[in-house]
């Protein structure tokens, strides 16, 4: 009997011990497990969210880079404005007059009153792109513009009629005004290739090309296997252009100097964009004019531009005196927008007669008069 009682007492003691062990184990182990679970989750959570966290930091970095880039672009555009003002004053082009250089011309300006935007349309200087943008701002849909057979300029003028000088000056006071320029010789070559080279039949420029060929192409007797070109060569086009200027004829809008086209010395443009830096300049323009989400930076005909190889190909067909005479025609575009003749004169062929080159060097810019004296081409 006593043995049974002793066994029961021992079993009760062991149960008590086991309960204590289980109790203390539970108290000690469970918190450890909870800590492990929380700790593991805290390590795993960044791994799962990395795909979401990193772009936030990248966005901040891109934003800071964009702000820095916009600041650099703004400084560059301000330097261009200051250069234009100084050049206008030095050349006497900021003095009002009655000729095409000193009389403000509002003819090619487009004014978007709703978006407070003023643009002087310079052909062959991203004009296709910004004509498209202005048509978008006017309410035309991209689908309509793609299908429409109407010339974009005609569509634009239905929404943006040609302004009077008074309306234009008023718009300059409360709008973002801009002008896009291009190296004069690149613009000239682009105009030749786009409008005269391979011009379509029954068009104005095809007819003009035939007239150039008739006047400036040497009469070559028919030879076996000889097939004359159907379009004027670049030297033939240049001869036509030089003669047109000497005879004081109106030039085609696609190769009229920008100085005469937009009279930039008569207006205070906010932005002077260059095709050489067009992407950045457009981004700044769109931000300044609050056009984000409405239009995009683009140059729709950029692929048709003049490359260094094309420039060498075409300008090496000219003589040095011809290149200098072309510089004379576009001299004010060179000066006002800070372009250089460097690299072009070296491409020209030596003139057979040195006096021809000397005559090109001593050319004067325009006929001088008392009211608007003009400096000589070279001093």
Automatic annotation (TrEMBL):
Membrane topology field: Single-pass type II membrane protein
PANTHER family linked: CARBOHYDRATE SULFOTRANSFERASE
Keywords from the named record: Carbohydrate metabolism, Glycoprotein, Golgi apparatus, Membrane, Signal-anchor, Transferase, Transmembrane, Transmembrane helix
Listed GO CC annotations: Golgi membrane
Name of the featured protein: Carbohydrate sulfotransferase
Organism of this sequence: Zophobas morio
Protein EC: 2.8.2.-
Similarity annotation: Belongs to the sulfotransferase 2 family.
Taxonomic classification: Eukaryota, Metazoa, Ecdysozoa, Arthropoda, Hexapoda
Subcellular location(s) per record: Golgi apparatus membrane
Single GO molecular function: sulfotransferase activity
InterPro entries reported for this sequence: Carb_sulfotrans_8-10, Sulfotransferase
TM stretches of this protein: 21-39
Enzyme class of the recorded protein, top EC level: transferase
């Amino acid at each position: 009997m006593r043995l049974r009682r002793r066994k029961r007492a021992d079993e009760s003691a062991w149960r008590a011990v086991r309960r204590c062990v289980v109790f203390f184990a539970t108290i000690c182990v469970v918190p450890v497990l909870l800590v492990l679970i929380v700790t593991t989750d805290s390590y795993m959570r960044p791994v799962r969210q990395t795909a979401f966290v990193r772009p936030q930091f990248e966005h901040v970095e891109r934003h800071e880079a964009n702000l820095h880039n916009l600041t650099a672009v703004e400084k560059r555009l301000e330097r261009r404005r200051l250069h234009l003002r100084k050049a206008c004053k030095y050349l006497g082009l900021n003095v009002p007059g009655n000729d095409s250089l000193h009389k403000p011309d509002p003819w090619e300006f487009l004014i978007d009153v709703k978006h407070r935007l003023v643009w002087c349309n310079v052909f062959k200087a991203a004009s296709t792109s910004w004509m498209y943008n202005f048509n978008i701002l006017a309410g035309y849909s991209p689908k309509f513009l793609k299908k429409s057979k109407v010339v974009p300029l005609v569509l634009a003028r239905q929404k943006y009629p040609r302004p009077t000088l008074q309306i234009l000056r008023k718009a300059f006071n409360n709008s973002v005004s801009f002008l896009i320029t291009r190296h004069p010789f690149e613009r000239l070559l682009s105009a030749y290739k786009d409008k005269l080279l391979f011009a379509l039949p029954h068009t104005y420029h095809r007819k003009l090309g035939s007239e150039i060929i008739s006047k400036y192409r040497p009469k070559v007797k028919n030879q076996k296997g000889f097939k004359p070109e159907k379009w004027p060569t670049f030297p033939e086009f240049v001869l036509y252009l030089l003669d047109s200027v000497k005879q004081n004829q109106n030039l085609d809008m696609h190769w009229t100097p920008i100085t005469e086209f937009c009279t930039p010395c008569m207006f205070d443009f906010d932005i002077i964009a260059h095709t050489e830096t067009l992407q950045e300049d457009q981004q700044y323009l769109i931000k300044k004019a609050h056009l984000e989400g409405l239009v995009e930076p683009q140059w729709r005909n950029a692929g048709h531009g003049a490359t260094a190889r094309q420039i060498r190909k075409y300008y090496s067909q000219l003589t040095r005196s011809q290149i200098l005479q072309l510089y004379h025609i576009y001299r004010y575009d060179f000066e006002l927008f800070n372009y250089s003749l460097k690299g072009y004169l070296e491409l020209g062929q030596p003139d057979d007669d040195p006096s021809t080159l000397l005559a090109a060097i001593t050319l004067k810019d325009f006929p001088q008069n008392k009211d608007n004296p003009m400096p000589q081409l070279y001093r």
